[in-house]
Design brief:
- By secondary structure, the protein is α+β, with helices and mostly antiparallel strands.
- It is built from 4 helices and 5 strands; from the N terminus they run αααβαββββ.
- The chain has helices spanning about 5-20, 30-50, 50-55, 70-85; strands spanning about 60-65, 85-100, 105-120, 125-140, 140-150.
- It has a 5-stranded mixed sheet.
- Helix 1 (about 5-20) packs across helix 4.
- The radius of gyration is 14 Å and the shape is globular.
């Protein structure tokens, strides 16, 4: 598969966005805030485990991302990235998560994230990103609905 620097940068950016809130700590299992934070940690774990199915399970059916990214595009991007990198690490250097007090089925996460990728133990790439994620509470589970990155 031919991969340009722009395509590789987009892959890393999408990974960064998908795990922006990975460093958050949970408070209680029934608390919507804690569930939002747990969903973000599950997303990080799924990406680091290179588990496309688990990542896709966390995306809302109407998921959208920067650059007109949708669910199908995300699946393709993850497949290509996971084939390229055996080891992926996501480090949230700072993050804020909050459930909207006016609409408690809407959660937002903003974070500064460092994404690394490697074939072996030493990272080949390390890219910082600012990511903004919007999550929706669907049937008691938080689903990632929108992802934007700089």
């Amino acid at each position: 598969m031919l991969s340009t620097p722009a395509v590789r940068a987009r892959r890393r950016a999408v990974l960064a966005m998908l795990v922006a809130s990975a460093a958050l700590a949970a408070c209680g299992k029934d608390d919507p805030q804690a569930k939002l934070e747990a969903a973000a940690r599950a997303l990080q774990a799924a990406i680091e485990a290179r588990d496309i199915g688990d990542v896709m399970d966390l995306l809302d059916e109407h998921f959208q991302g920067s650059g007109n990214l949708d669910r199908d595009g995300t699946r393709r991007m993850l497949t290509a990235t996971f084939l390229r990198f055996q080891n992926i690490k996501l480090i949230a250097m700072s993050s804020q998560a909050r459930v909207d007090p006016q609409t408690p089925t809407l959660g937002r996460v903003e974070a500064q994230v460092l994404v690394t990728g490697a074939q072996g133990l030493i990272p080949e790439r390390a890219e910082p990103y600012t990511v903004r994620m919007e999550w929706r509470l669907v049937g008691g589970d938080w689903k990632l609905a929108d992802l934007r990155w700089d």
